[in-house]
Amino acid sequence: MGRNAGRAARRAWGARVLSLAILLAPAGARGDDPPTPRTRPAASPARREAAAPRADAGDDQIGLVGRRITLNAGSSTPRDATFKWFLLSGPKVDQSTQDGCYYSFTPTTVGTYRFGLVVAACRGEVAVISDIDEVVVTVGEVPAGVLGGGVPAPTTAAIDRMLQGPGAAAGRATLEQAAVAFESVAARAPLYASFSDLSAELMRRLDVVIPADPNWRRYWSEAIFAPLTDHVVVEMRREGLDLSGPQGRDQPLDKAHQEHLQRLFASYAQEFRARAR
Fold it and tell me: What distance in Å separates the CA atoms of residue 227 and residue 61, rounded to the nearest whole number?
């Protein structure tokens, strides 16, 4: 379990690996880039044929009650193995599905869920079963301010503070321009192949409208956009897409992902425009 504990520590809740604040920063300005994904050297064909199957249950995860969580055993070998997931400890799981190496469930109770994975493969006429690998999922309540979609409470509070100060007029103009950027991304959501594609265009559009003054730029990035980014991560995890790492951001978007992103950014545009008036 030492390996899993280390994974969880690296993925502590609150780490903004996808933060718009990071994405808006100049290249090379930060040293807290996401960790490099684990890689393993590929075995030769002959060695793969002779090697016993190996189960890899993936990294530990953090989830929320009522939001779908997907476990990924795609790093297991061989590729054509048969996968078997099972709950080792934790609250009961009622809503679950398995599709090949993927296992999805929707937790209904806060707690620590420990899952086991074994894979089996045929070697001639003999079925060979791997050792068990484990993954831990820590499930909490949905944080205040992100219930039901829309702009999260920390972002609206930061906007309200801005509009009550001397920068109110410029802030309203920037809100309107940001709303236009969100609307454009929402309209094009069905065309993006991955979230990386969507975020790249969004960053280009926002970089033009955010004030050039370093203090105001920092305020927009850290106080307004960072909570909004956390909200996107939470909402898309509900749809089975984990945006907390580069693999999830580069994962192909299916129709459900695109439709949810379209609704999210349309709601952001609506809220920003309403507060600009």
Answer: 20
